[in-house]
C-alpha cells in the first residue's frame, strides 16, 4: 500500500499553515515530520486522520480497500491521551477495541506489551503521565490499522518505555504498516524525514 | 452495532461513576421542587394547581445542567477525535451519546417526579400525568440540548451560552408537556391531542438534534 499526498495545503483561520506538500509513504516505511513549533506538523497529521479538511490537495491510499476511507485506516495518537480518569486501563482498551474495530491483540495482552499488565484494573486517573501515555500507545495494538499518525509519541516516556515504543513501531512496519511521526527528538527506528519549513 | 453499544455502555458507566455528574441534575431538580412550597406558601390548592408546571419547569432547568459536558468532556481529552475515526457514523455516535445521557440524566427526573409531586400536594391522577409526560418529553429536551452541547463543545464555560441557545427551542416541549398534563386532569381538550404533539416533538428532536449536532461537530474545526 502507498499513501500519496499531492499538493496539500492548509489554511487555518485565514492564515496559511503550509502549502504544496508532496510525499509518498510506502508500506513498511516511517516518516518523521520535523520542523519548528507552529509549522503545521500537527495540522498535517490531523488532515491525514480526516479530522481537519485540507484547503487544497489530495490524499490517497493506493492498494487499500477502496471502500474504506482514510480515517478508518489510520490510528491517531495526539497530544491528549483520550483517557477517562474513571475507567480502568482494561475497560479503556476494550472500549476502544469495539469502537475502532478490526481486533488485533486482546486488551490484556496489549497491556502486558506496554508494561501495564499490573495496572489493568486501576482507573486511569491513578496512572502517572508516562503510564497514561503507554496506555494510549496500547490502543494502537488492540485494533489493526495500517497508518499510525503519532504526534510527539514519546513525550513523558522514560528510556525503557521508549525502547518498548520503538519495538511496537518496528513490528508494525514489519507487518506492512506505515508510520508518520511528528517529532522533535531523534527516533529509534529508521525513518525518512519530511522537514517542514516555516515562514509560509 | 457493537460499536454503538460499546459507546452507549461506556457513557452510562462514566455517568454513574464518581465525577460523572449523572446525579447533579437530579439533585438540582429536587432542590428546585423542594423550595417551591416555601416560596408559594402553604396553600395546598394553589400548589396542586401549579404543581405540574413547577415539575416541568424544574425538569427543564435540571436538564440544562450537565448538558454542557455531553460533548465537551470528549472534546477536551481527545476522545472525540478518536470517536470520529471509528467506522461508526458520526450521527450514530451522537445518538448513542444522547441516549446514554438521557438515561443517566433525563429518565431519573421522570422517575423522581411522582415522589416530588407529593411535596406539591398533587393528586394521584396528576402524579401519573406528570410522570408520563416527562417520560415522553425529556428525551426531546436532551436531544434539543445536544445541538447546543455540540456547538459549545470547544468552549470554556459554554454552559450559559448553551442554555441561551437551546432554551427557546425547548419552549414548545414545555407548552405541550404541561398542556397534556392539564388535559389529563380535565378540561375541554382530550388528553391525546397535546400528548400526540409532544410525542411528535420528541421524535422530531431525535432526528433534528442528531443531525444538527453532527454538523456542528464536523464543522467545529476548519
Which structural class should the secondary elements of chain A be placed in? Answer: alpha/beta
Element-by-element helix/strand order of chain A: EEEHEEHHHEHEE
The CATH topology of one domain in chain A: Rossmann fold
Broad structural category of chain B: mainly alpha
Quickly give the CATH architecture of one domain in chain A: 3-Layer(aba) Sandwich
Describe, in short, the structure shown:
The complex is a heterodimer of chains A (200) and B (222). Chain A is of the alpha/beta class and 200 residues long.
Question: Overview of this structure, please?
Answer:
The complex is a heterodimer of chains A (200) and B (222). Chain A has 200 residues and is α/β, with parallel strands linked by helices. Chain A is built from five helices and eight strands. In chain A, the strands form two sheets. Chain A has a five-stranded parallel β-sheet with strand order 5-6-7-3-8, with helices on both faces. A three-stranded antiparallel β-sheet of chain A has the order 2-1-4, covered by helices on one side. In chain A, strand 6, helix 5 and strand 7 form a beta-alpha-beta unit. The radius of gyration of chain A is 17 Å and the shape is globular. Chain A starts with a strand and ends in a 5-residue tail after the last strand. Chain B is built from nine helices and no strands. The model of chain B has no long low-confidence stretch (mean pLDDT 93). Chain B is elongated. The relative contact order of chain B is 0.15. In chain B, 81% of the residues lie in helices and 0% in strands. The longest helix of chain B is centred in the middle third of the chain and has 30 residues. With 222 residues, chain B is mainly alpha-helical. At the A-B interface, strand 5 and helix 2 of A face helix 1 and helix 5 of B.
Amino acid at each position: 500500500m502507498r499513501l500519496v499526498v499531492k499538493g496539500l495545503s492548509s489554511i487555518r483561520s485565514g492564515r496559511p499553515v503550509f502549502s504544496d506538500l508532496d510525499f509518498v509513504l510506502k508500506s513498511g516505511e516511517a516518516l518523521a515530520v520535523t520542523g519548528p513549533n507552529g509549522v503545521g506538523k500537527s495540522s498535517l497529521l490531523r488532515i491525514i486522520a480526516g479530522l481537519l479538511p485540507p484547503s487544497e490537495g489530495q490524499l490517497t491510499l493506493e492498494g487499500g480497500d477502496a471502500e474504506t476511507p482514510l480515517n478508518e485506516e489510520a490510528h491517531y495518537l495526539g497530544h491528549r491521551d483520550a483517557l477517562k480518569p474513571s475507567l480502568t486501563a482494561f475497560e479503556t482498551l476494550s472500549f476502544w477495541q469495539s469502537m475502532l474495530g478490526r481486533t488485533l491483540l486482546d486488551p490484556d495482552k496489549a497491556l502486558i506489551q506496554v508494561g501495564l499488565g499490573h495496572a489493568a484494573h486501576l482507573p486511569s486517573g491513578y496512572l502517572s503521565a508516562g503510564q497514561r501515555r503507554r496506555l494510549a500507545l496500547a490502543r494502537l495494538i488492540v485494533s489493526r490499522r495500517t497508518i499510525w499518525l503519532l504526534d510527539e509519541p514519546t513525550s513523558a516516556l522514560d528510556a525503557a518505555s521508549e525502547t518498548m515504543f520503538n519495538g511496537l513501531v518496528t513490528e508494525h512496519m514489519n507487518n506492512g504498516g506505515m508510520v508518520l511521526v511528528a517529532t522533535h527528538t531523534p527516533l529509534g527506528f529508521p525513518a525518512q524525514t519530511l522537514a517542514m519549513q516555516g515562514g509560509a | 452495532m457493537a460499536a454503538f453499544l460499546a459507546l452507549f455502555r461506556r457513557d452510562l458507566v462514566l455517568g454513574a461513576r464518581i465525577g460523572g455528574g449523572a446525579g447533579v441534575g437530579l439533585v438540582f431538580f429536587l432542590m428546585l421542587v423542594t423550595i417551591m412550597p416555601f416560596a408559594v406558601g402553604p396553600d395546598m390548592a394553589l400548589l396542586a394547581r401549579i404543581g405540574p408546571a413547577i415539575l416541568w419547569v424544574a425538569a427543564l432547568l435540571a436538564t440544562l445542567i450537565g448538558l454542557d459536558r455531553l460533548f465537551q468532556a470528549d472534546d477536551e481529552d481527545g476522545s472525540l477525535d478518536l470517536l470520529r475515526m471509528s467506522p461508526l457514523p458520526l450521527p450514530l455516535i451522537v445518538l448513542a451519546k444522547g441516549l446514554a445521557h438521557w438515561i443517566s440524566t433525563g429518565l431519573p427526573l421522570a422517575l423522581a417526579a411522582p415522589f416530588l409531586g407529593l411535596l406539591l400536594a398533587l393528586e394521584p391522577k396528576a402524579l401519573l400525568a406528570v410522570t408520563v409526560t416527562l417520560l415522553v418529553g425529556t428525551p426531546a429536551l436532551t436531544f434539543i440540548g445536544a445541538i447546543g452541547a455540540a456547538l459549545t463543545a470547544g468552549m470554556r464555560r459554554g454552559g450559559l451560552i448553551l442554555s441561551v441557545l437551546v432554551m427557546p427551542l425547548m419552549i414548545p416541549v414545555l407548552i405541550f408537556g404541561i398542556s397534556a398534563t392539564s388535559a389529563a386532569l380535565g378540561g375541554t381538550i382530550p388528553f391525546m391531542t397535546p400528548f400526540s404533539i409532544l410525542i411528535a416533538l420528541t421524535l422530531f428532536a431525535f432526528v433534528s438534534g442528531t443531525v444538527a449536532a453532527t454538523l456542528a461537530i464536523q464543522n467545529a474545526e476548519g
